[in-house]
Amino acid sequence: MGAGHAHGHAGARHRWRLAVTFAMVAAFFVVELTVGILTGSLALLSDAGHMAADVVALGAALLATAIATRPDLSGRRTYGSYRAEVLASGFTVLVMLGVAAYILVEAWSRRGEPVEVQAGPMLVVGGLGLLVNVVSLALLRAGAQESLNVKGAYLEVMADALGSVGVLVAGVLVLTTGSSGWDALLAVAIAAFVAVRALLLGREVLAVLGQHAPAQLDIDSLIRDLESLPGVRDLHDLHVWTLTSGMEVATAHLVVEAGPTADDILATAQRVLQEDHGISHATLQVEVDPDTECHRATW
């Protein structure tokens, strides 16, 4: 793949944001896990578990951006390795679901058991965690609008921010009521939120892997625009999909009539796809005879 594709790759442009976020989250994970073990707080441990998921997810996202922009030396990856980012996002989904399941199992195992929780350290660590998450969200916000990979990391950190709020709320309730049950209850709420965010992200990942048309693309409008081009009589075998975030791909066959040259029609069609529909990589075939061999294809 050419260098131009690497420069246009959405995830690669925001790699430094992922790196800074990874460093902050990894450092805080160590702090939260240590305090969670010392205080016996399930809310802290569940949030630390989610932080561990963040560390893994952000590390995978960083690795994916490096792989995605690496030149292919085998000659076999004709689309490059851009899908590595989508696979990393799918891995993030699995990690998030695993963490949510662990929290729920741990909360269930503690039912009816008197557990002493130290609220003071919970409040300190919860506040520190919220600060780390807010800074991380500010770093990743721009990239989350462009890259599915960065969006996965952003959602992970967002869930962590809610987790930190949950830790603070649990600490206040334990401190004011003297009941440690609030700790487990808030941990379950965190787990539910994490699971929902994971499922929503997973749906987007499956849409890309299933080569669905981009959600923001109006297929009917695209077809009308191509069919209305001067010299185009018909359109068939249209396929549009997302290779990775920010890289939409299309293929189509244009049946043309006498008049404009094939080069003129191709140039106009490419411009319409890029300027009106955001598709910069399109492979178009021009056909003069509508009864060509391609109509015999079975898919």
TrEMBL record:
Query: Mind listing the GO molecular function terms for this protein?
Result: zinc ion transmembrane transporter activity
Gene3D superfamilies this protein is in? Answer: Cation efflux protein transmembrane domain (1.20.1510.10)
Q: Domain named Cation efflux protein cytoplasmic: which ranges? A: 216-287
Q: Subcellular location, in the record's words?
A: Membrane
- What's in the keyword line of the UniProt record? Ion transport, Membrane, Transmembrane, Transmembrane helix, Transport
Under the heading NCBIfam families, the entry gives: CDF (TIGR01297)
Supply the name of the protein.
Cobalt-zinc-cadmium efflux system protein
